[in-house]
Write a structure and sequence with these properties.
The structure holds two protein chains of two kinds. Chain A is mainly beta. Chain A has no helices and eleven strands. Chain A is globular and about 35 Å long. In chain A, about 35% of the residues are buried. The chains are: A mainly beta, B mainly beta.
């Protein structure tokens, strides 16, 4: 029973490098989300996808891109990492397309950009 | 603007009851969520309220007053494992979740 799997769990990255955080779910959920969590702040939505083939921008999308080629996978790419992108990143999914359902979160990816 | 307010930290004693408050201001409203997050772990769902009133689920209950923009999470018979952060999130008219910064609950024996 996997639920949502994120990789890597932790990464240290030099500024300017490209990085892809992987997210895979096996629950056949329609909606998927990427959040970042920083100390003292609430979870902030980066990008989301209500169904395979569609994506949308969240509250803090700049510097990030996503794709949703199929139901299961929702990778998040940092094209050129900057220190302000140091954070814990959570991928989440929901069975409901409008977000009113329970969110299931992955274990998180801790990213440090130097 | 849209905003969620909840206390930063609370302390309670094992076996006691604690109430964690949350006030929200959103453009429209489609429900209020509570999540639990242990240190270094992922958030996990506790409750969802969209109608006024109290919903009880075991030792945890969640209350909503839409007219006051207010919710609380009530934890009874506190156990050491309840030490965690509790995240309040309100859903606006666009079905976007607005998250509070979380309340860190410390349980003392």
């Amino acid at each position: 029973i996997a639920g949502i799997t994120q990789a890597p769990t932790s990464q240290i990255l030099a500024a300017g490098r490209r990085m892809t955080l992987r997210c895979t779910q096996d629950m056949r959920h329609n909606a998927m989300y990427w959040y970042r969590q920083d100390l003292g702040l609430g979870l902030r939505l980066i990008h989301y996808s209500n169904t395979a083939g569609t994506t949308g921008k969240g509250e803090v999308p700049d510097g990030y891109s996503v794709s949703r080629a199929n139901t299961d996978d929702f990778p998040l790419t940092l094209a050129s990492a900057v220190p302000s992108q140091t954070s814990v990143y959570f991928c989440a999914s929901s069975a409901s397309r409008d977000g009113t359902g329970e969110l299931f979160f992955g274990e998180g990816s801790r990213l440090t950009v130097l | 603007g849209q905003n969620i307010d909840q206390p930063t930290e609370m302390t309670a004693t094992e076996g006691a009851i604690v109430q964690i408050n949350c006030t929200y201001q959103t453009s429209g409203f489609n429900g209020l969520f509570w999540y639990q997050q242990h240190a270094g772990e992922a958030p996990t769902f506790l409750s969802y309220n969209v109608l006024d009133g109290l919903e009880e689920k075991g030792r945890f209950s969640s209350f909503l007053s839409r007219s006051k923009g207010y919710s609380y999470l009530l934890l009874k018979e506190l156990q050491m494992k309840d030490s965690a952060s509790y995240l309040c999130a309100a859903m606006d008219s666009n079905y976007q979740l607005i998250w509070g910064a979380g309340t860190k609950l410390i349980i003392k024996p």
